[in-house]
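I have been asked to look over a protein record a colleague put together. Alongside the sequence sits a line of tokens, each denoting a local backbone shape. Please read both lines and tell me whether the tokens look consistent with the sequence. Take the sequence as given and treat only the tokens as open to question. I have pasted the whole thing underneath without changing anything:
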Amino acid sequence: MTRKLFISIGELAALTGLSAHTLRFYEKAGVLQAAKRADNGHRRYNSQDVLWLEFVLRLKQTGMPLADIREYAQLRAAGEMSLQQRLTMLELHRQRLAITMSELAANASALDDKIRIYQTMIVDKAGRKKKV
């Protein structure tokens, strides 16, 4: 079995759940480097492009603003001279993510409390109807 070395924008879109339009936007915005092109001009992505996009999506899903992702991408493109800056960015993002997770946990706990109150009220109401 042979593995494809390159995939098309449509295949990358299907693989990531993003639209081809979004992939072109990311390229235009500087989040993705300009894709290599086939002889017919169509974009071709390799495994490193896929791995990078998966990491970009992870940053996005954890709430990193697109401007910060773009900055991180530019630092990445600059190579090893930007390692410390990239590390600092990821550490700050990780700290913000921990705060967000803590806030979400507190909100989930408050929702759980409210759900228990409603469940108790519904059971009490059903018990009163049986007595009548």
The first strand starts at residue 36 and ends at 37. The mean pLDDT is 94. The longest helix spans residues 83-131.
